[in-house]
Structure formats: structure tokens, C-alpha cells
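Predict structure. Input: Valine--tRNA ligase, 899 residues.
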Amino acid sequence: MADQNHLTAADAAATNESKNEMPTTYDPKAAEQKWYSYWTEGGYFRAGQRPDAKAYSIVIPPPNVTGMLHIGHALDFTLQDILIRTKRMQGFDTLWLPGTDHAGIATQTKVEQKLREQGISRHDLGREKFLEQVWDWKDKYANTIHEQWAKMGLSLDYSRERFTLDEGLSKGVREVFVKLYNKGLIYRGKRIINWDPAARTALSDIEVEYKEVNGHLYHLRYPLKDGSGHITVATTRPETMLGDTAVAVHPEDDRYKDLIGKTLILPIIGREIPIIADEYVDKEFGSGAVKITPAHDPNDFEVGQRHNLPQINVMDESGTMNEEAGPYKGQDRSECRKAITADLKEQGVLISIEDHVHQVGHSERSGAVVEPYLSTQWFVKMQPLAEAAINAQKDGNGVNFVPERFERTYLNWIENVRDWCISRQLWWGHRIPAWYSESTGELVVANDEEEARRISGLTDLKQDEDVLDTWFSSNLWPFATLGWPNEDSADFKRYYPNDVLVTGYDIIYFWVARMIFSALEFTGEKPFSDVLMHGLVRDAEGQKMSKSLGNGVDPLEVIEKYGADAMRYMISTGSTAGQDLRFRWEKVEQARNFANKIWNASRFALMNLEGVSFENIDITGELTTADRWILHRLNETSREITRLIDSYEFGETGRQLYNFIWDDLCDWYIEFAKLSLYGTDAAAKAKTQSVLAYVLDRTMRLIHPFMPFISEEIWQHLPHEGETITLAAWPEYDAALENPQAVAEMNLLMDVIRAVRNIRAEVNVPMSKKVDLIIKASNEETLSIITRNDNYIGRFCNTSSFEAGLNPETPDKVMSAVVTGAELLLPLSGLIDIEQEIARLEKEVQTLNSEVERVEKKLSNQGFVAKAPAKVIEEEQAKQADYSAKREKVLARIAELRG
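Output follows.
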């Protein structure tokens, strides 16, 4: 026999020749290893094998090659896999394209940290040798991610895997840059940007995390040059005052009208600075006077531009004070703050210091406090791109957000977006396709150096040292991965636009918005039809998972302990779209128990399907009530599961699957089926075997997208056609299987069995002890159902005698229960204490009184009656009649017992 970890289709078929030999317990590890190898080697995940089918595509949000995948990735990827597996079974030509992201600053930071532990820096190695180190890192962690994808059971088309720095994507990035530059939408300029002094690189606005910090507000006195007084200003960062070039007041502020145009003396430095008027100032806030530091504040920069103020940068790239800081040169910015505060106090210009809680920007990657910093960088003009995206959304041609509320979040951001700083002072990433003449400084933007030389006629060219923001390349992901900018690419024509993007709500600005405006600009189409936003995975207490808290969960640990199917089922069905998920180990254990329930039920069924082949399965003809009922419930469940998956309602999908499999199939149908399977009627047995095989086959198909491994393992033992469940047809709704009569009959039978079991439990009569049962039917139809199915009632109520009628002879002393359409009577002799039974019935009356009162109150509410649909009112009226009838019967029983 072939190695079980590398099964071919023939090996798998041979392995499962004996369909009835399933192990006693399910072994997740063995199944996962076996079937993933089988799927990938069989090429079952590859797109393009159904050229005549409708295409359905998803490109994976590429994980960063910075380390291991976390439980949030597991949620994200599992939801995508559910969609892809479902659509593949529905006959679509599905593409789920895998890939990874070079992740710019995040990856470079990791590699630099590793080098520091060896006592060296990237500068010791030089750019080329350093990049070799980063590529080694990338290869290592890309392989790790591959292994994790396999462990999770993801049905990815590895033949189309991409990386954001591979040549195809790099070509697309260069083309986008050049086109945007030539269109005037990319420019190079000196502006205030977010600067990470630890990583020594620019950051975009959305790479800055704002944290609440307990700081101080420093109130300072700036004296007028003519000695006539002073102006009071306030700042949270006194070290930046060294770069002040003006104080601004509102032009209509009467307090300062006579001072506009006068000169102040900047404390410490002694520089003369003007008092200017600008409507930016809020005259109602504080003193109404604002210090202007154009090189260290984005708003001050704009004011400075309007008033032609000098820009004085007082720090270097590491956050250390430079020569413009005078006596504080060489001090770290935090040291300078302490020193300058002391000096201001000594000079008598520090009025007061008050506690002040405010939001301070921190680098998302290094954690350093971000410095607003005047720097020459590359920018994208966002307004024209944003307008196209906004118009598409408002014209009804935009992306469908799920949940819908995220559309407003998206529009709020893109309507107020600022120009995007896209250059990074890193070595790892897409090098900016711009060259400078070393002799003249002339700038040339081109796809490569050869083109730059050709269009400029220059030979002494040196490429820009900076790289592009990682999001500049990843925002091309939906189309660049499919062959763009070659629009004749077969994959681009076939699979673009994508059908859905599945991602967390936390990167709606970073990535989702940018993909949309880039796609509209360069392909003329939205990149995907739907965006499914899921929440974060939090710990059991609702806290965000983090290394510092030590509350993170490794998906491989979950898989090792409970199996991939249990993890997938728990995380995919544990919350609704857009809501955070609390990870609880007990929930994973419950999912594992669910998998075991499926296994045990299937194992029992297979032991009773000896001789059944796929060809002789026949669910037509004379069937039992239970057979007809389970086919109806399967059909109903198939329709609902299809609708729910299409609506991305995975939580409700999980509930429906669980209820059907655990309750309907395992707890009821399989128990009922035993009567035929163990009986002497060969025809009835054959029909039930067919129904059982059919229902189990379809059930495995329904659960397969959620639990791929156990469903494949069981399906391969069942009578089936085809090589793998991954390609088996999805269960479609079949009107011929609708059977409301069977549902009504089964509901009555289940009510009777539950009621008898409840009576037994109340008086501690074990199921092993036989009882006498009398059923008093309220009408002929109910009596007919009971009579036709007396074998079920006798078996599952374990009766020694059983009588049913419209008015059967009733002993004086009985225990009773009421179900819709019938009264159940169990003779008391030897079973119960009569007074206890009266007390029990009186409690039941109280419960029914409450139900009747609740319904009557609702029906007497004119507001409810006026607004509720007719069907809802009819349902409430039916409940009222049902509860009232039950109450009357219970009251009658109490009277009988007391008589």
C-alpha cells in the first residue's frame, strides 16, 4: 500500500474498499495529513479545470512574512475557504489565489533586530548583503506560512502563488508609479510627515496608532520686543518651541488686533518672530494665541506656507536635537524637554504646568513616539483618486460592504483623505523608480534605468535610495496577481474582478480603500463585488490579544490539541459579520465533541449499510414517516445553508448545521431508523438504508466547507461516486422532497416521546421499566398518525401496553401530559404519589396561565395588532388557542385526581 501521507486517487479508493471498516475513534492528525496531501497532489484546488463554468475568485489577503500566522489569520482564511469550497462544489471554476506580503518596515525591523543580537547593523553589511539576509528570512517564514496553511486545510491554488516583491508585481508597481507621476498625481516635495525616529523612516497617517498619554500642558510667556508686554501661549511639547517662527492670533480677536504685525522675542533662543493673523486660530480656545512651528506640526506647516514663514527643523532623524536647537544640541528630545522646562522656569517665562491627558501618535511597528517632521518625500495626490471611488459608491457601482455599516466608515475616511506619503527610508521594498543626474540633479521617472537614460539622454543617473510604502504594492493585489498590467492575461480576463474580499475591519483604511481607488484608476472596475468585514479574535475576557498580555493563541496549538476541523468550526461560526469573536477553549472542545458525534453516528450507519452501493440507492417509493421527515429536513437545511453562506451569515449557518446533525439526524432519525434496520421487513430495511446513505452523503457535503477533513474521511467510506468530496456536487433544494405531512407527524411523535420521558423523569421511572400508555386523540387525523406510527411510540416510550383512541377507557388514577392534539395518560398504579402528581399539574397550570396571559396581553395591544403582519397575528392567536386548550385539559386532570 502507498504511504498514507501521500495517497493517490487509486490509493485512496483502495484504502476505502471496505466501506464498513471505520476506526472506533476519529484520529484528526492522521486524516489531516493524509487528505491534504491527497488533495494537493490530485490538483483538486487548481483553477481553470472547468472552462465552461462561471468563474468565482478570491485572492487571499497576503500575510506578512514577519513570522507565524495567528488566530486572527485562521479566522480570516477559514471564512474564505468555506466560500471557495462551497462554490467549488456548486460547480464554479474557483480560484483562491495564495500569496504573501514583503511587509516593508515590519520585516526590515525583524531582520535588523536579529542582526543587533549578533552585534551588527544593516549599515555594516551594506544594502546588497542586507537584502540577502532579508530574502533568507522571507524564504524561511514563507515556508512556515505554507505549513500553517496546510495544517488549516486551506484549498489554495498553489500553482498561482504570488509575492508582493516578485517580478510580475514589481512590474505592476513601477507601471503604476510612472503613470501616476506622468498624470501629475505623484509628486516629490518637502512637507510635514509622520517620522519614526526609531526606524528612521516616514510613515503614512494610518501607520500611526494614537494612544492616550498622561502628559502636561506648558503655559509660556513670549515677551514683545518693544517691552510693552507679552503674549501667553501653551504647548504640550516645549522642545519644539526652538523651531517657532511666529505666533498666530485670529484676525477678528479684539484682544490682539493692535498687536498683529508686532515682534516677539522667542525665549531661550532670542530669535525675533512676528505676530501674524490667521483664521486657523480658534479665538475661543485658551489664550487665543498659538505658537507656530512649521517644521514640527502639520497645521503650523500650512499656516507657515500661507505666511511665507521660515521652516526650522530642530531635530535630526533619530529624534536628537540638532544645531538649530542651540544649547540643547545632542540631547534626546525627551531629555531636552526636561532641560528646557527648567531653563524656561529660570528665565521666568514658564507661567504654569498643568496635567493634560492627550492622544499621542506611536509608530505601529517600532512603538516609538512619532515625530511630525519636515522632510522631502514622495506623495500621492489623493483627492482625484478618492473622488472617483466616492462617485462609484454613490452611483450604485461601488463595492457591497458586509455589514453595510462599514460603507459609511469607508466613505468617511476617503472623503477626508489627505495626500499619501509613499516613500520610506528603508532598503527592503520596491525601490522608487526615479533617477537623478549626479551632475545636474535632474529628476527622471521611468520603469527602469534603461528607459530613464533613453527618455532623458542622461548617463550619470543614480536611483532614488528610498522604497515605496508596502501598501503601495499590496493595493494592486487583486489585479496585479492575475497578470496585470498585461490585460490580455488569461487569468486577468477570467478571474477579475474578484467576487469577494474577506478581511478584518481594522485595515479598512490601510488596504481596502486603497485597493478600491487603485483598481478604479487602473482597471476601470471595482476590484471585488463584496467586502466581508469580520471582527478581531479576542481572548475569553474580550481583551485584544497581544504579546505583552501573553493572551495570544497559536492556531497550530489549537489544531494539535483538538484538530483542524474543530478549530475551523469554532472560529467560523462563533460570531456574526463585523463583530469580534471571543476565543474560548471550551468552545473548541464543544466543536471537537460535535466532530466526534458526527463520526460515531456515521460509524453506526456504515455498520448497517453492508451491501449498499451508490448505484442502488433509491429514496423513492414507500418510506417510513421518519424517512420522509429526515429527507424533508435535509432538503430544508440545504436550502437554508446555501442562503446563509451566500449571505455570509456563518454563525447562523453553524447553528443550523449543528441542530440538523446533532438533533434531527443523530438523536432522532438514526434512533428511529434502527426499527427498520433491525427489523424483519427486507424492503423497509433497504429503503431506510438508502435514505440513511443518501442523507449522510449530503450531510457530509454540507459540513465539508467547515470541517473538510472529517467529512472527506467519512464520505470516502460511504457509497459514492467521484474521487473526492471537494468536487462532489453541492446539495441543491429539491421540491420533490418537501413533505410537511411527515414534519407534522414527526413533531407529534417527538412531542409524545418527550412527554412520556419527562413524566418518567419526574417520578424517577427508568427507561428500562415498561409502562402502560393510553393516548386520547382530539381528532381523527391525530389518531391516524398515532396509529400508523405506533411502533415508534411503543419502542421509544418502552410500553408494556399501548392504547390510542378518541375516547379510550381511562383508569381513575393516571399521570398525564398534554401535547398538541392529544392527551397522554400513564396509569398510576405502582408509579407515583397522587398528591405529588396534583402538585406537578398545578405548576403546569401556572406555566400555562402565564403563557395565555402573555399572548392575550400582546393581542390586546392595539399598537402590536396595528403594526404586526397578519401571519404573526395568526400565529399568536393559534398559540392562545393551543395554550388555552392544554390548560383546560390539565385542569380536568387535576379534577379527576381529586375526584
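The radius of gyration is 37 Å.
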